[in-house]
Amino acid sequence: MFQRSESTLEVPQSQSVLLLHKIRQPYQLASGHPVPSVQSDDELLVKILAVGLNPIDWKAPDFNFGIPTLPYVSGRECAGLVVQAPTSTNQSRRIRKGDVVIIPSTDYRDLRKATFQEYAITSSVNTIRLPRSLTPESGSTFGVAFVASALALGICMGVNFEEIQDGPDILSIVRSIDPDLLPSDVRNECLHGIQQEERAHSGDFLVIWGGSSTCAHTAKQLARLAGLKIISVVDHTKHGLRLSNHADIRPDLLVDSHDPERAIQIIRSATEGRARFGFDTAGKETAGHLLQGLSSAGKPVSLPQDLDAYGSVKSDFPTPPSTPSNSTKSAAQRAHLVGLTGLPKGEIPEGVALHSVPIKLFHEIPEVGEALSAWAEQLLASGLVKPPDVVGTVDGLGEINDGLDRLRRREISGGRLVARIS
């Protein structure tokens, strides 16, 4: 466990930082870089203790996207020690100097907030206090997955979290805000992506393709708390046993992704064509497969009743509870597919709505950021939601390139690789 001391709260004049000077080049370690400074009374300065390494950290420079300027500082999440607290009276009541916090750095255009450095700036509304029961390494794997999962479920699928640890109804929050304040590129998603009568409720099916990812890890926990029935489509050989034995993320039905057509048939048959919600965490191709498994994308097909997802004797699938009369589903309801990293191209079946996660709501709309951050604290403190597993570590900023190479080679699965910084 990290030990706080007065010396760890002192801020130096300069810091070390990883810089990307050219596309498709390794990050370069540089010393003597200025420590970022706060620019408003709701911001705080964090001494970074651990950084969670994400696929975007190597894909962005390799494929030249999400790099607004060069040289660039990357890194999307961390856990750190608050060395300069916000001066805003309201915010300083929740976040104080000496707190260990989780920072989901979704604002990739502000290099002060990047995590491949020793110190970073964040807004108080985007800061999650880490319970003492969790290590900084564990906390550094949680932030981005939580934000993406909560927004995918809460905005794109309309899940209401109000009955879970006083959680937020994110869709209602967003739709109560002046539409002109919403970012223009996600405004339509926020206001018209899903109709009130289409919102997901307890007992609905949620199919997650790529169910072994860290985002799926968190999404399954949130969805289960909301009463959804989870179908997880994964490489059974690689991930099946781990997911089946993992109490926190065990799905209601585990389907092998090896044969996509077979997986589609299983989803349709097991749900009797009633799966309306899909979440793809892998890419455009698998999102296209998932599209075919949703209720409005095709007629249900019959599978031999004595077979399960792996050709074995079929066990009983949990029967969803009856839906309350005030949320009765109509024939006109659409299916909803959320793509985390891409959406299928070409002809889309009638009755299916495609969604991209409006991740920027977290840092651009304070009401959303504060609601999600405060709720995350409650979920972690109560143990209702647990961070993804730490499956490997590297030491210091200088070893992050080696860690990203391991991600490129697909050597990391079932959790997150973490860089220990302090």
Automatic annotation (TrEMBL):
The keyword Oxidoreductase applies. SUPFAM superfamilies: GroES-like, NAD(P)-binding Rossmann-fold domains. Residues 41-129 form the Alcohol dehydrogenase-like N-terminal domain. Keywords: Oxidoreductase. One of its GO terms (molecular function) is oxidoreductase activity, acting on NAD(P)H. Monomer. Belongs to the zinc-containing alcohol dehydrogenase family. This is Chaperonin 10-like protein. It comes from Clohesyomyces aquaticus. The lineage of its organism: Eukaryota, Fungi, Dikarya, Ascomycota, Pezizomycotina.
